[in-house]
Amino acid sequence: MGWEELASKADQFAAWVRFDLDEPRAARRLYAAIGKLRGPSRSSLFGKVLEEALSLGGADRGNIQLVDPATGSLVIVAEHGFGPEFLEYFEVVDDDRSACGRAARRHAQTVIADVTTDPGFAPHRAIAAASGFRAVQSTPLTDRAGRLIGMVSTHYRRPHRPLARDRQVMKRYGELAGRVVADRLTASHAAQAGGRPGTAEEAFRSAARAHDLSAEAHERSVRTGVGNVAEHRRQAEFHRAAAEADRQRAKRSKAAPRAAHLPVDDLAGR
User: Fold this and answer.
1) For the chain, which terminus, N or C, has the lower number of CB atoms within 10 Å?
2) Which CATH number do you get for residue 59?
3) Distance between CA 80 and CA 61 in Å, rounded?
4) Dist CA 81 CA 221 (whole Å)
5) Mean pLDDT across the stretch 31-41?
6) In a domain, 3, yes or no
7) Pseudo-torsion of CA 20, 26, 32, 33, nearest 10°?
């Protein structure tokens, strides 16, 4: 009767609120990163998604892939820190030996702490050595319905296993950044087809509602004296301000709905 999906969404939202309360500094970094994705310049969306992922993940190289709807393969649309050999080798990924391939098959974040000892990664060890990385984490990019649209991967020069908190930050980043990417692609398709997109306004209003709910959770903690009251007060003020900013962006988006829509090829920087 549809209750299972609603319950799953409620559980996910509750987990996000708990994360905001338990890891306020990490949450602030995460939302600041997402905020920078709202209005990137022409041809820079995927690059910006990757830039913020590298910052959150503490990595100096990585890539963004999108799912090819025709084949289901992962195709690189942005990268940083790699040479042509790596890009040619992983230009299209359709196996489940690599970290991104496993993450796509499982629809779940995947970490390979050391590619030289991971049995499944054996076919790719030579290119990893040539490209200078020993560890990799891959996190799915998902749309609002939870569908896989791509992958964000960060790579490390030495064996590395991110802390549970850092994995959670990247997992949520994949969900929120994936929504931004999916909304922009959907809007671009609609613009190319001559339709009326309207997705930017909806996305901003949805973000405002989420910030309002987070602010209410922090305000309840302030009223009841639970946890660090000063931190909860700062978080409440932050989310209230973010909600109002999103509502203003929604109004501007409604007034000029086509201004922010770019063709798909421009988004990929091709």
Assistant:
1) N
2) 3.30.450.40
3) 5
4) 43
5) 82
6) no
7) -120
Which whole-number Å values give the CA distances from 260 to 17, 148, 255, in the listed order? 30, 24, 11
Residue length of the chain: 270
Please tell me the predicted confidence (pLDDT) of residue 253: 62
1 within domain boundaries: no
Task: Provide the residue range defining the domain that includes 65.
Answer: 9-267
Gyration radius from the chain CA atoms:
19
Contacts of 263 by beta carbon, 8 Å cutoff, 6+ apart:
188, 191, 192
Q: How many domains does the chain have?
A: 1
Reading the block at residue 203, the tokens are 């996305």
Residue 169 — φ and ψ, nearest 5°? -60, -45
From 67-76, 102-111, 150-159, 182-191, the region with the lowest mean pLDDT: 182-191
Q: Is residue 2 part of a domain?
A: no
Q: What is the largest CA-CA distance in the chain?
A: 58
Q: How would you classify residue 94: left for phi > 0, otherwise alpha for psi between -120 and 50, otherwise beta?
A: alpha
pLDDT at res. 159: 97
Is the pLDDT at 261 greater than 60? The verdict is no
Q: Are strands 135-142 and 110-112 parallel, antiparallel or unpaired?
A: antiparallel
* Residue 24, pLDDT score: 85
Taking alpha carbons only, the member of 51, 59, 77, 79 closest to residue 133 is 59
Cα 148 versus chain centre, distance: 11
Q: For tokens 């990595």, name the residue.
A: 59
Instruction: Kindly state whether residue 145 falls inside one of the protein's structural domains.
Output: yes
Predicted pLDDT at 257: 39
CB contact set of 242 (below 8 Å; sequence gap of 6+): 31, 35, 207, 208, 211
pLDDT tens digits for range 231-245: 778 877 877 887 787
Residue 191 in this model has a pLDDT that exceeds 60: no
| pLDDT value for 204 | 66
In the predicted structure, residue 90 carries a pLDDT above the cut 70: yes
